[in-house]
Automatic annotation (TrEMBL):
GO terms for molecular function: DNA binding. This is Dna repair rad52-like protein 2 protein. One of its GO terms (biological process) is double-strand break repair via homologous recombination. It comes from the Eukaryota.
Amino acid sequence: MALLITIGKGRVDSIKGSLSSSSSSWSRGRNNNNNCWKKKIAAATAASGVPNSNYVVPLDNSSCIKRPLAEILRDLNKRVPDNIIHSKTNWIPWYHANRMLSFYAPGWCGEISDVIFSENGSVTVIYRVTIRGSDGEAHRESTGTVTPSDGHEDPVAAAEEMAFCKACARFGLGLYLYHEEET
């Protein structure tokens, strides 16, 4: 089973090219199934007639796609296609961040470290994202705070979304969007 995500024309070719060029480092310590990611991409593309504007996120047996942390972080620091950036807020929506992490860093996990309710009614969520590579793992934490005046139906979920996206940015995913706000 595979999940297809539209992110922009020509992206599949560049992703396949980068995966192919680094496949020798992927195969260290693996069994004969080290090309399973190639088979999954080819099968999903052939079965569904997927155009070049999609990439495939394997949802099963993704442990065969472990890469060194340096490669994962390099990929997460690439520019994100403009069509997935929320135009009003200039942020990457949480569901796109989730999918991109699943593509570039299969096996990642996230957790809420703490939820803080303050006297003024604001809610702060501390969120931790862990990325696992073939050579270790890395963690990043961030906070998201929502005030009652923000008018969110579920302030804890809104604060969690904000904290998750900021933790992803600490890995480099869309980090440049925060810098563009300052200039």
